[in-house]
Each structure stands twice: as structure tokens, then as C-alpha cells.
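Q: Here's a chain of 134 amino acids. Please give me its 3D structure as C-alpha cells.
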Amino acid sequence: MRSVGASRRRRAGAFTLVEVLIALVVLAIGVMAMVSGASDFARNASDLRLRAMARWVAENRLTEVTLQATWPNTGKKTGSERMGGVEWEWEIEVEKTPNSEIRRASVSVRHEQHDVVLARLEGFIGSPRLRGRQ
């Protein structure tokens, strides 16, 4: 017959099957959380890249309208532009303001595969007479 002390000594240095399974479950949950976080990070980085390029397209369009030698007509104008290997759709709306020498321009930019506006930029355009171009 074995002594009770020998049995306890042997058990004290080993893990039971239940303890090992619990440790594996905890480890699996931790790994799943890390993978989910990395996936979210990659998705956010891609979204930020698209929004930054959309902002550049909007800035380019607004700058072109602002620097035109002629006074831009009021209304909407649409078009597309390729930047960063992506086709961008833009819309510029020029509106009158209470000051007859200033017009407001709003630029919206969408990605070719997204239905939402990724960048919106607004600016004011002074008449060519105010800019010294008569």
C-alpha cells in the first residue's frame, strides 16, 4: 500500500488534464483577440489611406477652381480623376454668397467602389477683379 505523502508529492509537480484544457482555452481566447485587433488595425489603416487620398483630390480640385483666370459659374460640375492607382469621382458645387464678389465652392470626393463621400472640402473664391485679374 502506498503512503498518502508519496501520492501528494507526485501530484504536486504535475498538471491535471482539466488544468491544461483551461490553460489552452485562455490562450485561444487571447490569440483570437490579438488576431481581431490586428484585423481592425489593417482595416483602419486602409480606410485612412483612402480618406487621405480623397482629401488630396478635393484639395487639387478646389485649388484649380480658385486659380482659374475666369469667374466660375454657379452650379454643379462632376468629373473623375486618377490618383494613387484609384479612380476618384468628384463633384464641385459653386454657389453665390451675400457678397457679390465672393463665391462658395464645395468639393465632394468618392471612391469608385464606395457610395459614401470620403472627403468634403469647402472654400471661398474671390472674383478675378479682387485677385488683380481683370
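Q: Can you summarize the key feature?
A: The chain has a mean pLDDT of 84.
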